[in-house]
Design brief:
mainly alpha, Multidrug-efflux Transporter Regulator, Chain: A, Domain 2, two-stranded antiparallel ribbon, 4 helices, globular
Length: 91
């Protein structure tokens, strides 16, 4: 967790807070250390940007969560559109 906090330029307390808010759920090593994926670090960094701009942490986590859901929906929409374009729209 300390290394992840250093990479983000934040504190372990901030990472714990975004974890408690349910924004990221790191895996645990055998020794009990939190292990963050690159995606989780990007998400935490985005929350940090919002907090640095004055957004309360709970609101920042909700905003980032919604942004992430929107990205997933847009990606799925592009995939479906591409598949429909490949196979035609006749059913």
């Amino acid at each position: 967790m300390g290394r992840a906090a250093d990479v983000l330029g934040t504190t372990p307390a901030f990472l714990r807070a975004v974890g408690e808010a349910g924004l990221v759920t790191p895996l645990r090593s055998e020794g009990g250390h939190r292990r963050y994926s690159r995606r989780q670090l990007r998400i935490a960094a985005r929350a940090r940007e919002l907090v640095d701009q004055g957004t309360p942490i709970e609101a920042a986590c909700r905003i980032v969560s919604l942004e992430d859901q929107l990205d997933d929906a847009l990606r799925l929409n592009r995939e479906i559109s591409r598949k429909l374009g490949e196979h035609g729209t006749d059913t």
